[in-house]
Design brief:
236 residues, alpha/beta, Rossmann fold, 2 domains, 5-stranded parallel β-sheet, 4-stranded antiparallel β-sheet, 39% helix, 21% strand
């Protein structure tokens, strides 16, 4: 039986046998699940209530899941999105990430892996998507960041964040401790081709270090992983 405060997931999947199997197993894990078999039903459900996680198929009878993901991201930058699809080549994965998905799992998939990914995404999400009525605050070091209001309190005082600054911080917060490749950040935050030669990302990291690091030349939170990308460490 689900707990009253159990996470509620929206599963968008048109293949009934797959949907029912996932619903059964997700409910066995203690989650509440709302099922939508079409893009139209999914958007109606999203408009009617908040969800802890969106599990989204791509090939729907009336819509493209990538388009739905982009539409969701225009309305809500924080809800975790897991793309679940048979489209597994690199271009499709990049399209999904560029459209705002947080993770991408290709059919056929391991049920154990799927459930672990769902669990991990929900664990991450509480860092930056608090329960209704609470403020959307994230603390690390001497800093306090309010992603909803796009404000931060730092050693330098209070600052206003741009939309892109808030978006990249949201990605770092939800993926705390992980190495984020340059290509992934360019695709998910700036919607740029992962092959793009640009200093945009590096300039943003320099700006974040200036805001949030005690000593920007020796960062403790926004770390460079040479040859790969960046990693955010909250620390104490």
């Amino acid at each position: 039986m689900n707990e009253p405060d159990a996470p509620t997931l929206l599963l968008v999947e048109d293949e009934e046998h797959i949907a029912q199997g996932l619903i059964f197993n997700l409910e066995q894990e203690g989650y509440r699940v709302v099922h939508a078999a079409t893009g139209k039903k999914a958007l109606e459900a999203l408009a009617a209530r908040d969800f802890s996680l969106l599990i989204l198929d791509v090939m729907l009878p009336d819509a493209n899941g990538f388009d739905i993901c982009r539409s969701v991201r225009e309305q809500d930058s924080r809800v975790p999105v897991l793309i679940l699809t048979a489209l597994g080549d690199e271009n499709h994965r990049i399209t999904g990430l560029r459209g705002g998905a947080d993770d991408y799992l290709t059919k056929p998939f391991s049920l154990t892996e799927f459930l672990l990914r769902v669990k991990r995404m929900l664990e991450r999400s509480h860092w930056y998507r608090p329960a209704p009525g609470s403020r959307n605050l994230y603390r690390f070091g001497p800093n306090v960041v309010d992603l909803k209001e796009r404000r931060a309190t730092t050693l330098c005082g209070e600052i206003e964040l741009t939309d892109l600054e808030a978006r990249i911080l949201g990605v770092f917060f939800v993926r705390e401790g992980e190495v984020l490749e340059r290509s992934e950040l360019l695709a998910s935050v700036w919607k740029m081709s992962p092959e793009a030669e640009t200093r945009t990302l590096d300039n943003f990291i320099a700006r974040l270090r200036k805001y949030f690091e005690t000593d920007p030349s020796h960062p403790e939170h926004f770390l460079t992983v040479r040859g790969k990308g960046y990693r955010f460490v909250a620390g104490k």
